[in-house]
């Protein structure tokens, strides 16, 4: 079962005297989830505390964030190094790239076992699974046409049987 909250960013530094912070994104969905989802902050799933975005300043890589209750430089310094978690649903795309999938078996729709998920690479056009079968690695694009389903109970990811993908 996918987690209810997914890590999306790490607070890296303060910016200014009004409690603004800068973030290191942990996935391509980070900014979208921070702006649209309910948030939690903490160092692990066991220590999460509710967090609400007050406003954003700037655009792109220079974007700064201010959260409710963090209104001074000192309060902002206290949250450096903590992780921001966003609420997720079972069908959210971010569940296809979580670190909890590492070690899952990759199986084609025809039943062929491709290998185990070794890593997830975050590339400009789309993310890819790095799959290792004991001899060599395969890159599997994480797109709806290829990744059909994720089964958390069986620790299995089902992919399409496309010619040339794993040959």
From TrEMBL:
Q: Which organism is it from?
A: marine metagenome
Q: What InterPro entries does this protein map onto?
A: PRC_barrel-like_sf, PRC_RimM, RimM, RimM_N, RimM_N_sf, Transl_B-barrel_sf
Give the UniProt keywords, A-Z. Chaperone, Cytoplasm, Ribosome biogenesis, rRNA processing
**Record keyword Chaperone present:** yes
What is the protein name given in its UniProt record? PRC-barrel domain-containing protein
Print the organism lineage: unclassified sequences, metagenomes, ecological metagenomes
Every copy of the RimM N-terminal domain together lies at 8-87
Gene Ontology CC: one annotated term: ribosome
* Domain Ribosome maturation factor RimM PRC barrel: start-end pairs: 99-160
Gene Ontology BP annotations: rRNA processing
Please list the GO terms describing molecular function. Answer: ribosome binding
Gene3D superfamilies recorded for this chain? PRC-barrel domain, RimM
